[in-house]
Amino acid sequence: MTLEAREKWGDALTYLTAILIAAFFLTPLAWLLSLSLRTRQEVFLGASRFIPKRPTLDNFAQILSDPTFLLYLWNGLKLSALGGLGCLLVAAPAAYAFSRFWFSGKSALMMTILAFQMISPLVILVPLYRYMSALGLLNSHFGVTMVYIAVSVPMCTWLVKSAIDNIPKSLEEAAAIDGCSRFGTFWRITLPLAAPGLASAFILIVILNWSQFLIPFLLLNKDAQLPISVAIFNFSGTSNASTTQVLAAACLVAVVPAIVAFLLLQRMIVGALTAGAVKG
Amino acid sequence: MMRLRLVTALLASAAALVAVTAHADNLVTKDRVGPADAPKSFTLRLTNDGPTSTDPVWAEGYQKLFSDFIQRHPGWRIDLERMSDNIGQEQARMLEQAKSGNGPDCAAVDSFVLALFKGANVLKPLDEYFTKEEVADLFPFIRDGITGPDGKIYAWWWNTDLRVLYRNKEIVPDAPKDWAGLKAAALASKEKGGEGVLFNGGRWEGTTFDWLANFWAQGGKLVDDKGKPIFAEGENREKFLKAVNYFKDLVDSGAAPKRVATIVNYDEFNAAAAAGTAALFIGGNWQYGQLKNTLEPEEFAKWTFSEIPGPTAGERSTGTGGWTFGAFSNDPEKVAMCAAVIKEIYAGPGNALQQQLPTAAALYGKYDIFKTPANETFAKALVNGQARPGVPIYPEISNQIQIMMGDVLSGTKTPEAALDAANTAVQAAFARL
Amino acid sequence: MPTTTAAAIGAAQRRVAGPSLARRLEANPFTWLVPVAVMLGVFYLYPILDVFRLGLTNASLVGNDERYTLVTLRAMFENPALLDILKTTFVFTFASVIGQQVLGLAIALIVMRGERRKLKGMVALRTLVLIAWVIPGIANGLIWQMLFSEAPFGAINSVLRMIHIPPVAWLSDPNIAMLSAVISNVWRGTAFSMIVFYAALKAIDPTLYEAASVDGASGSQKLRFITLPQLRAAILVNSILVTIQTLNTFDAIISLTGGGPGRATEVLSLFTFNTVFRNYDLAGGSVLSVLMLVISLVLALGYASLLPRREASE
């Protein structure tokens, strides 16, 4: 009985803490939503109009009726997705090697690859700029995609490796006995079996790419090429603060795709993250 | 299944996007002016002052100007590039591109970094496209700015701006004449529920620029004739400290709110005016038009402006800036087109469209829009105008003044200590130039 | 029929002749590593070498003659501001590492307890925390700037005003500005720590807790003697990754405070960015980049040496 009572108290405490934490995490987004639904006059009323008296969708209409804004979203999606895809292509063979081969220096190599993850793109920013300029890769989505791939490849390798680790070797061995080449086995057996792991790695990388700021900021000049993460920064400079409500709407438009993708695929992503984390 | 649905949704939205971007095939598009298949073309990099402006009136006006322009120059196409509003970064990036030969053919160059571009020898002379009279008609500080050491002109400075003190006449009926007057007026406005006087005080160029008026008004100099920083020496030091202490006193006495140290945008002032929380602020001449668009007419009628007060009524100054155009192309034909863009679109029509002050005295009489009382007042105030020194060390001086302002206004450092720190940093940077 | 026989014989002959080049290549693990090596080499290694080289020059975005010199190196290290920047960086990073992990662990524990007791809303809580994590850094800074705005109509301050508490100088007071920056960083970064802790907590053998319960251990004793020691590896992994992540953060700060007031929130990464893009000082920026690199690596190695041997060698 006392134990049960203690557990009940514990439940109450758990709920209380959970509510406080939820409030901390929800408030900024709720405020953003509140601002984005207000008219200009209501913005200046601060928190007393948390729920706008005359909610309006005009701010969203203004953002979404601007064709460039849709273009920014499209660019963001395109760069993130291509980056994610390229990353898988580059990382998968390496992940396979780390999972299936035994060779000396393997763990050192894996740590080395992980060490790249620790280098900020900022460190390589300036030489990269000159370098890309010399290669003629400035102002091209191809160049940006390449750098996205390079930046996310270490993490991707680790994620895919842990996905391949979970596939029983017996299937591959059977294929090898049937005369299938090692690459053939990898392509036709291993990768399809690792599809769920690959998919979650892909989604995770795409979401991270969606937030990339520095690389596109530096390597792209043309307005029509910018992804939303850079466009929103530029937009915050151009809008005047008397249009805070429009900036709020723009921010929401920029974050909602990532949130929606995340919500739809959350089980997969959390799975990939925890798998990586336990291994890491 | 879920994934399939997501992919379908993504494809659908992608298709919608393509549809949106594909239509509107007229002469002026987001990234081009003229027919896509024109035999000759040049790249033009613009700021917000162009067909892609975020201001719908400007965008429409420039679309018309550019459309007319390209019809007068058949066979040409202009490929538009758009700079973001992070001017410092954008200009640095452009300089780096120009040096490696990847710059645009023609571009907007901020007057305040023009000296860096001139020093890097990336600009093409424009003398043959402008007459002697046109050059002579420019305001002196403008002419000096665009002229290289060899006497040639390397850019065309087409608009200028200045800073003034805005006030709500209902709360502050009379224009403050000097520093003490502004402080008194700000304190008085607080009693009517306002925040006091607002000005830029955060980490950005505007902070330095607006504050310098108080230093210049006393005759202070940032650099000597050779470009060496001397703001912390001799009488400049005293003047500098006096101007810093003036701002510090405004905040310490409550005449200005502490939050000025976070203001990094002129638009904060528009917002405060719209919200009715501020009756006084130091802003740019362009904000008069913005206030008109932002405020209700009866509210706007309450607002007016006057020259930035100096230490005494007789000492006045204001910072002037503005934009130039420069040509980077090695192709003389493209340089000529760049000059044509300047003459036919920007110098004159562009000024009138954006109500931005022309750089030549003759243009004030040419357009009705510059004959309004407001613009006449601005033009008169330009007499006390002072451009930032066009020397390579200026960006670092400005950076250090911004840091100093934050440290002083937040009470982290005394003005003396902050000035010494700024000077040490500037001298170290200067030694390496 | 004859063709298949011929093919079979051909295959057999090939097998006798020894593995083909393709087979030999695919049997070598390093073949499989070529794509990764090329990507990292071209886009990481080469630029990094170039950063070291540029640090020994006087390269600038505005001068033309580039030559080798040690002046830049000396100037950057003699810069009296560097010490302040490093202190700021340390405070920001340390506070974020602690803040994110304490909060992350708390949330993970609550979710675990909630799941054990079958309480409602635990998935929602976890999701909510994770949502903050997918928000781009720039948007994060902009959102918090709206919340911390000190204008009379700013979010938090107008709430304080309503309940008659004097407004707080969220961004204009140097110390509070740092706190604000940390809060916004913790808001966005906690999710990662939470996930790592959540996974690690799931991996703890439940019999440990059962045994402790039998011995009459209290909740706090269980936390101290079972949970925390079992989480040691997770805490270290978190510390490494959060430290690196925070050291590299500048997009959220640039849109929140721009580094101000003064230099109160100018961390090393932002300082590096400003050196290159505001002062046009390529060489100086490169020296700072190398410094960032060294700090990251030293910290990562330092933490890694604390990892239990067994896991490090795995």
What does this structure look like?
The complex is a heterotrimer of chains A (280), B (433) and C (314). Helix content of chain A is 79%, strand content 0%. Chain A is mainly α and 280 residues long. The longest helix of chain A is centred in the N-terminal third of the chain and has 35 residues. Chain B has 433 residues and is α/β, with parallel strands linked by helices. Chain B has two domains: 192 residues, 3-Layer(aba) Sandwich (D-Maltodextrin-Binding Protein, domain 2); 197 residues, 3-Layer(aba) Sandwich (D-Maltodextrin-Binding Protein, domain 2), CATH 3.40.190. Chain C has a domain of 196 residues: Orthogonal Bundle (MetI-like fold), CATH 1.10.3720. Helix content of chain C is 76%, strand content 0%. In chain C, α7 packs across α9. The radius of gyration of chain C is 27 Å and the shape is globular. The interface between A and C is large, with 95 and 97 residues.
Low-confidence stretches of chain C: 1-16, 310-314
**Mind describing the biggest β-sheet of chain B?**
7 strands, mixed
Secondary-structure-derived class of chain C: mainly alpha
Helix-strand string of chain C:
HHHHHHHHHHHHHHHH
- Order of neighbouring strands in the sheet with most strands of chain B: 1-3-2-4-11-5-12
Please estimate the helix content of chain C. Answer: over 70%
Question: Class of the largest domain in chain B, according to the CATH hierarchy?
Answer: Alpha Beta
CATH fold name of the domain at 94-270 and 295-313 in chain C, please?
MetI-like fold
What is the CATH level 1 assignment of the domain at 94-270 and 295-313 in chain C? Mainly Alpha
Percent strand of chain C equals: under 5%
The coarse silhouette of chain C is globular
CATH H-level superfamily of the domain at 94-270 and 295-313 in chain C? MetI-like
CATH architecture descriptor of the largest domain in chain B: 3-Layer(aba) Sandwich
Number of domains of chain B: 2
Largest interface: chains, residues each: A-C, 95 and 97 residues
Radius of gyration of chain B: 23 Å
Termini separation of chain B (Å)?
62 Å
What fold name goes in the CATH topology slot of the largest domain in chain B?
A: D-Maltodextrin-Binding Protein, domain 2
